[in-house]
Amino acid sequence: QVQLVESGGGLVQPGGSLRLSCTGSGFTFSSQGMNWYRQAPGKERDVVARITFAGRTTYIADSVKDRFTIARDNAKSTVYLQMNALLPEDTALYFCNTRWYNSQGYQDYWGQGTQVTVSS
After folding, report:
1. What number of other Cβ atoms are within 10 A of residue 16's Cβ?
2. Whole-angstrom Cα distance, residue 95 to residue 73?
3. How far apart are the first and last CA of the chain?
4. Cα gap 59→79, rounded to integer Å
5. What does the pLDDT look like over 56-109, one tens digit per residue?
């Protein structure tokens, strides 16, 4: 059974930093690309960052570029989202995701989410 467990969210002041972690189990973590999404109240869930299975290629959304980075440690089956210079508009529920493609399309797996609140 695929499981993704996020941690590291919390309340932080504007300009502060947080590091989110997501640990995967029930699958070969090192063979799968991993993603971070976020969803603010009343808004759609948007991708924040992606990383390929070996970590050689990453994508960071324009809205967080130069502030957020994504990394992974396959030995620990964990993907990280380092968030610096946080803004109030970064407040959202952050989700870890992996998407597996097959002949019928794709299957998404999600964690339960971790809340990030940026406020003074």
Report:
1. 14
2. 18
3. 40
4. 14
5. 999 999 999 999 999 999 999 999 999 999 999 999 999 999 999 889 999 999
